[in-house]
Design goal:
mainly beta, four-stranded antiparallel sheet, globular
Length: 112
């Protein structure tokens, strides 16, 4: 699977294996079909993906966390709150919580 313009720094599968999300220093998160490997969508300006079967979360240099709807490929929620770049994002196994961390040395927990 090719498509990023710079090195890939993070990859994750959705728990059901249907999706793969990849992040790169090209400031994009790409969504791939986890079965065929085919490209599905790109989300610009964000890094550090975490996906479940329906949502993709990503962090950004603009200090926000974004939640994307995998089905519609549209932004579902914009979560400001960090004071600096967000480098790490992960979803809980039940999909109800998201944890994020970054350059501001803060770990945030987002509920529901």
């Amino acid at each position: 699977m090719t498509g990023h313009q710079q090195l890939v720094n993070h990859v994750c599968f959705s728990p059901d294996g249907l999706w793969i999300a990849s992040a790169s220093f090209d400031k994009s998160v790409k969504l791939w079909n986890g079965i065929t490997g085919k490209f599905v969508a790109a989300f610009r300006g964000h890094v550090g993906p975490s996906a479940d079967s329906r949502l993709l979360s990503s962090g950004s240099k603009n200090s926000t966390l974004k939640v994307w709807d995998i089905t519609t490929k549209k932004l579902k929620e914009d979560l400001p709150g960090h004071a600096d770049d967000v480098f790490a994002v992960d979803r809980s196994p039940d999909g109800e919580k998201v944890a994020s961390g970054g350059k501001d040395k803060v770990l945030k927990l987002w509920m529901g």
